[in-house]
Amino acid sequence: MCKQRPQQLEFLFVQDVQLTKCMRLRAQSLQQRNERPQDGEKLLRPNEYIYRVDFVRQHNLYFLHWKIQMEKAGKVMVTGTSQHWTPDLTNLMNRQLLEPVGIFWKKPGTKEVECNEADAQEFGERLMELAKIRKVMYFLLSFTDGLDPAHLKCSVVFKA
Length: 160
Fold this sequence. Notes:
Elements: E1 2-5, E2 8-12, E3 14-15, H1 17-32, E4 48-54, E5 62-70, E6 74-80, E7 102-106, E8 114-115, H2 117-131, E9 136-144, E10 152-159
Antiparallel strand pairs: 1-2, 2-10, 3-4, 4-9, 5-10, 6-7, 6-9, 7-8
Organism: Gopherus agassizii (Agassiz's desert tortoise)
Protein name: Olfactory marker protein
Pfam families: Olfactory_mark
């Protein structure tokens, strides 16, 4: 989804429930058959979810800022992937996880969401470049310290 304001485009992170479920089934299947994952394969942990961003506009975008809203204290790590998923669910490999990672947190009793500004800025600028060549991008979001998907709204804002 994309919210449009004069001169700004806000691209929302949308949880991909189906893809997350498929990836959890992969991990469960390996465990049930007592098999190991492929060398370098990234299996989803219980606190990790797959999100997607649909870039409805791809050109002349300039990163402005992240818009992260947390309804309660906790921490989320946002990792971009270079993966293009296919209907047969190509497995996610660790080498497909992009750097830097955006880490956002909210301390108990505060309203402000904090982050490492330099990494968040670099990550946003990297997304700006990737948006030029991708209509859809997938992300791995890892939740800790009591935060979960129900208490997070995440988007990235670009100048058009």
